[in-house]
From TrEMBL, chains A, B:
Nicotinate/nicotinamide phosphoribosyltransferase domain ranges (all copies): 148-334
Source lineage: Bacteria, Bacillati, Actinomycetota, Actinomycetes, Pseudonocardiales
InterPro entries linked: Aldolase_TIM, N/Namide_PRibTrfase, NAPRTase_C, NAPRTase_N, Nic_PRibTrfase-Fam, Nic_PRibTrfase_pncB, Nicotinate_pribotase-like_C
Organism of this sequence: Saccharopolyspora thermophila
Family to which this protein belongs: Belongs to the NAPRTase family.
Biological role stated in the UniProt entry: Catalyzes the first step in the biosynthesis of NAD from nicotinic acid, the ATP-dependent synthesis of beta-nicotinate D-ribonucleotide from nicotinate and 5-phospho-D-ribose 1-phosphate.
Protein name (database record): Nicotinate phosphoribosyltransferase
Length: 443, 443
């Protein structure tokens, strides 16, 4: 990660601030302006990558040469950029927690140039990973009693995205991932069976199944739909007869009417005495498909592409807004994009209570928990990187807290977020003073 | 890039093939089964990353330890994987070319274990980058006479995705990118102005504009919508009066009714004698918005999120299918997913002619150009990596070739792809022999 992993305007502004000595503390707030269609909540994710990025921020000499030559930045600017590190403070909602529109996911307080420069990367990590964790959570809600595993690697937006998707899905309770690099990095179960090509590379399906059972007796899930699904199941039954142990036998359905094929396959397997054989289903699944399949005798779903790209909502309407500079609250008034000033805190109450959006300086409320926690100070993390399981535990707890109305997959009602009187007062008074200065002049 | 950047089942199958000496040549064909809604064509992209991946493929010792410990692969498997490199041949449609459903974007011929192992990564790169290049091409069609630049970095799916998006957009004719790391790597113009936070960090808008003009006289595009857009334009006019040279002056509109604001801003600028001042527009743009804005006096569009995630079609229904193994054509018959056997070639004719989908062994047709080219042999590239400009030239040429009916943004009619008699005959005869073997038994 390097200083050039940002938008050009961040570098221009950073250079300008540095030239002018505008290095007072600035607070930026990162939040979703609104939820995508059919979303009743978001699942916070992406913080770990943000902290890695901030801790590693610097310009190397090749990058500085580029900025000098291509962007005509003078030597003084380059010298200042060469020294730049992230020395600020970060408050954030821990990964796995449920949040709503308008609630800060992350707030940075740092000398203005540093806080500005990191906008692009922080927005990117939080937006993408929160969108995917939220999509994965919806899949969980659609199939609460069936194991889900991540099969998305082949159609995410790059392999770095495959890594982040495996992690975000795990935060939302997925039981494993097919993407081996991520399984290794995050200590997740790696899962996977065989592809159609395996079956096709043998003289016939039976030979392929026998070979696979011989090679991987501990995990013999047979892909049965290469030629004819039910015929494939019958071949599995034959092959299983010769196995010393059928405890690990399963089948995977990957095309056709999955619900009907699961029923008919289950019947064939049960009649053959393979009552313990698992049925795995995959192929174009998302939360809507999972709801439709919820009554089918399926033991595990491989959920791929549509989860991994959050197909119906591949981005969130997030913003990283300056809310305070050098001790003064600030806000913008662009049409439809008004942002509230000041560093903030979210106070969460019991189930059924609205969240309170407060200034960070306001005191803690009784029976309410502050969502944002300090995670970095003086550019240093306040704790070691946490395992994915910690974020997953938070998600499970928040999912239990979330009201049914917000959990609904269609037309949900998000939990209300109410600004405190102090925040409302500050917003209004700043709005009036800015309107007096700018609007009157233009009308 | 490493051997673990793949799905677990690829590693299982690879290990199984190696154990069994199933190392005969296999050909896999990568293609889109169908086009997403409202797509009349695809723009091929992702090949450069595929070749890098193939050239770098290997398992390091830490990865082999992981596979041994976690997946219980025995020593012999690990030794075989340690030696594995990609030694095969790749034919591909060069980046920037226009393709249609069913046409191979890429074909790999290699010993079966190698060709299998790389499936996940090749599908990922080609699917994602082709989807985004196609989306960017649609933006070009929507605004053929206005410069477009990529502003997507903050909301793509990771920073690696930001890099790939900048490149894919450039292939489709975007004039620059805000993402500096990609601008540097690919030699693209880096573009960018100022953010709202810059304006807010100064005592007032006028002070911010003056400071910016002083610091970047060569590129003074002022963001005018922080408080009140037209008031912002008037402030630009005032500030510009004091500039020694107004040739580089411009404004950026980022919210509100962009068409109306552009008209009113243009009038104000012209009245003030700033007839050369450029108007840049950004904020939630995609091809539909660009069509709506096509009559507005806007000189450049910053196109961000919706292009960078290909918002209405964030993935393609791609497949990487075994079509030949050890000299024998193969195919699968899964419901709705029939794949045609054999290594292929696409023969393209004059405008208005359908494409011919042929076996690669068929002879070249008169007045037709073969789309797939050999790009790697014996695991080595057949040429140096090419500049983005080469792909962009191909795109411009193919765009001129593409019939109006396929260019339409809504309900387009893709160019027809007709299989040759030889391909049809091979497909039918294989289908019959497989059906005889598998379907009869199950009915």
């Amino acid at each position: 990660m390097t200083g050039l992993c940002t938008d050009l305007y961040e570098i221009r502004m950073t250079a300008s601030y540095l030239r002018r000595g505008m290095t007072g503390p600035a607070t930026f707030s990162l939040f979703a302006r609104k939820l995508p269609p059919n979303r009743g909540f978001l699942v916070a994710a992406g913080l770990a990558d943000c902290l890695d990025f901030l801790a590693g921020l610097r310009f190397n000499s090749g990058e500085l040469d580029y900025l000098g030559a291509q962007l005509h930045l003078p030597e003084d600017d380059l010298a200042a950029l060469a020294k730049l590190r992230f020395t600020g403070e970060v408050w954030a909602v821990p990964e796995g927690r449920v949040v709503f529109a308008g609630e800060p996911l992350l707030e940075v307080t740092a000398p203005l140039p540093e806080a500005q420069l990191v906008e692009t990367a922080l927005l990117n990590f939080v937006t993408f990973q929160t969108a995917v964790a939220t999509k994965a959570a919806r899949c969980r809600l659609a199939a609460p009693h069936t194991a889900l595993v991540d099969f998305a690697a082949r159609r995410t937006h790059g392999l770095e995205a495959s890594r982040a998707v495996a992690r975000a899905a795990a935060i939302a309770g997925f039981a494993g991932t097919s993407y081996v690099a991520a399984a290794r990095e995050f200590g997740l179960p790696a899962v996977g069976t065989m592809a159609h090509s395996y079956v096709e590379a043998f003289p016939d399906e039976r030979a392929a199944f026998r070979a696979f059972a011989e090679d991987f007796p501990e995990a013999v899930v047979f892909l049965v739909d290469t030629y004819d699904t039910l015929q494939g199941v019958r071949t599995v039954i034959e092959v299983a007869r010769d196995l010393p142990d059928t405890a690990a036998v399963g089948i995977r359905l990957d095309s056709g009417d999955l619900a009907e094929l699961a029923v008919r396959s289950r019947r064939l397997l049960d009649e053959a005495g393979l009552t313990g054989a698992r049925i795995v289903a995959s192929g174009g699944l998302d939360e809507q498909q999972l709801v439709r399949l919820s009554k089918a005798p399926i033991d595990m779903f491989g959920v791929g592409t549509r989860m991994g790209v959050s197909a119906d909502a591949p981005y969130l309407d997030t913003a990283y807004k300056l809310v305070e500079y050098d001790g003064h609250p600030v806000m913008k008034m662009s049409a439809g994009k008004l942002s509230a000033p000041g560093a903030k805190q979210v106070h969460r109450g019991d189930p059924g209570q609205p969240d309170l959006l407060a200034l960070r300086t306001e005191t803690r409320r009784e029976r309410r928990e502050p969502l944002l926690q300090p995670v970095m100070r003086g550019g240093a993390r306040l704790g070691p990187p946490e395992p994915v399981s910690a974020a997953r535990r938070r998600f499970e707890r928040d999912l239990a807290w979330l009201p049914e109305s917000a959990r609904r997959l269609v037309d949900p009602a998000p939990v209300e977020v109410i600004p405190t009187p102090l925040l409302t007062q500050l917003t209004e008074s700043l709005r009036h003073s800015l309107a007096a200065r700018y609007h009157h002049a233009s009308r």
